[in-house]
Design brief:
heterodimer; A: mainly alpha; 0% strand; B: alpha/beta
């Protein structure tokens, strides 16, 4: 599945001219940043709860 | 007076390379490149100020050079030929961007009679998959400079890779000490950050992935296309050795093109001059 996604994205990118390709990668970049943020928020929430739990027990 | 030009991105490795060269040379010219797609370019000034405070203003000059047209030329010249032979390798934006910077630096050195060039290339960068930092490609780049009697140095190439503390830093795990970091155990050499810390330029040893690290460099998302091509498509199908060999061939050919571009520039051909003097 990942190979197919990568193949489609690369095929689009390789036919784009200079500026459009840059904008295309900017869009992909911000999507990745958003996914990163989601990952961070979930992870942070788990860590914070673990710390509170540890303090209550300690 | 001995001078050296440093390809300067503002990051830890190129700052370390510049600092080491400031001990060896009378004057260091920091060259930063900007083009469409590179954002927050002013971040770079942060470490230039630190270097000037440490070594003195007179020893350092910092120049920002625009290279949109050169990058475009190198990425898109003979496009169908390259597309047929190397297909998605044309998305090696980082490698082509760095090669464009090298060509522009070569021309800068010829114009200013500078005999030495260096950058912050490291062996570990991008698992040694980033084309412009691969050993074989670097040898080709060195040979390109050598043709014009310029020596290209890579002073931090064999330095060790620092721990990436991005997630520890963001999640505050360093402060609450839930996890123990490696702290450099088992390493042979120092990292660039440790050298800068020892020289009293940086206030902390490991900055990789920290907010401080991000605030001293330009931002560029075009790496994503290359990473998608490499890690999701090419490596799983063809493997590492095939990638290294093909990337080497692709860049060898691009460097050959670059050489003829520089020759045309030196012959004062109008179209080529317009690309450089944009």
């Amino acid at each position: 599945m990942r190979r197919i996604i990568a193949f489609i994205i690369c095929t689009i990118a390789v036919v784009l001219p200079y500026r459009l390709r840059t904008i295309f990668s900017e869009i992909l970049g911000w999507i990745m940043q958003f996914l990163y943020l989601l990952y961070y928020v979930i992870f942070k929430c788990i860590i914070d709860n673990l710390v509170v739990d540890k303090k209550e027990k300690g | 007076m001995e001078e050296i030009a440093v390809l300067y991105s503002g990051g830890t490795d190129s700052t370390c390379a510049a600092a080491l060269m400031l001990r060896e040379f009378d004057r260091v010219r920091l060259l930063t490149y900007r083009r469409f797609g590179l954002f927050s370019i002013n971040n770079i000034k942060k470490n230039v100020t630190l270097l000037k405070e440490k070594f003195g203003k007179n020893k350092i000059t910092h120049t920002v050079i625009k290279f949109d047209m050169l990058f475009k030329y190198l990425s898109y010249s003979n496009y169908f030929h390259y597309l047929k032979r190397y297909n998605f390798f044309l998305l090696s934006t980082c490698g082509l961007c760095k090669l464009s910077m090298h060509i522009r630096t070569l021309i800068y050195c010829l114009e200013n009679n500078i005999k030495y060039v260096c950058d912050g290339s490291t062996r570990y960068s991008g698992n040694n998959y980033y084309p412009a930092q691969m050993t074989k490609v670097l040898d080709e780049i060195k040979a390109m400079y050598k043709q014009y009697n310029i020596e290209f140095l890579t002073p931090v190439y064999d330095f060790d890779e620092p721990d990436n503390i991005e997630w520890f830093d963001k999640l505050g795990l360093r402060k609450i000490r839930i996890l123990n970091l490696n702290n450099g155990q088992g390493r042979v050499n120092k990292t660039a950050g440790e050298v800068l810390f020892d020289m009293k330029i940086f206030s902390q040893k490991n900055v990789k992935g920290t907010i401080f690290d991000k605030k001293m460099q330009a931002r560029c998302f075009q790496l994503i296309l290359f990473n998608l091509f490499l890690y999701w498509y090419y490596l799983p199908i063809y493997g590492e050795q095939k990638y290294i060999d093909t990337a080497h061939k692709f860049f060898k050919e691009k460097i050959k093109d670059s050489n003829s571009f520089v020759e045309k520039y030196l012959e004062n051909i109008k179209n080529v001059n317009n690309i450089i003097e944009e």
